[in-house]
Specification:
alpha+beta, 2 domains, six-stranded antiparallel beta sheet
Length: about 150
């Protein structure tokens, strides 16, 4: 018999302790072997399979925002989105004010190479490119309207 509590389970399952507490409150955990002074105890040898089969929702909780702070937070670089199906955004802020905003839209379903890219500096759009408008000739990019 291998008795474990929530802290041991967190280590065994590689799941944050706080997540396990939420799962316990939502009755997502298997029935404990015993409850001692209000603390559930499981026999790991008999319940491991039940714990490993708990579906982990990767999209739950607060969204994680990759952020880089430079110069004690004076400059922040914020990256959002990284999926092929979603917009990708990069914002550079100086002293809390957005300085540069880069937005890349995913390829559309008709033409997989067709993507849109826009760059704003201090809120003003300085670049707006659709990759379908750009063609390559002898190793150089050329605007398709010029040809």
């Amino acid at each position: 018999m291998n008795l474990v509590g929530l802290k041991e389970l967190a280590e065994l399952l590689d799941v944050p302790y706080d997540t396990l507490k939420v799962w316990k409150n939502r009755d997502r955990l298997p029935e404990p072997f015993e409850v001692i002074s209000g603390t559930p105890i499981w026999d790991w040898d008999t319940s491991e399979e039940d714990f490993r089969s708990i579906e982990k929702n990767e999209n739950s909780g607060r969204p994680k925002k990759p952020k880089i702070s430079i110069a004690g937070g004076l400059i922040e670089i914020d990256v959002q989105g990284s999926s092929k199906d979603k917009d990708e955004n990069i914002s550079i802020r100086l002293n809390g004010k957005t300085f540069v905003d880069v937005k890349a839209e995913p390829a559309n379903s008709k033409n997989k190479s067709d993507r849109n890219l826009s760059i704003k500096v201090l809120g003003k759009k300085v670049i707006d490119i659709n990759t379908d408008d750009v063609i390559e000739v002898d190793g150089e990019d050329t605007n398709s309207e010029d040809s």
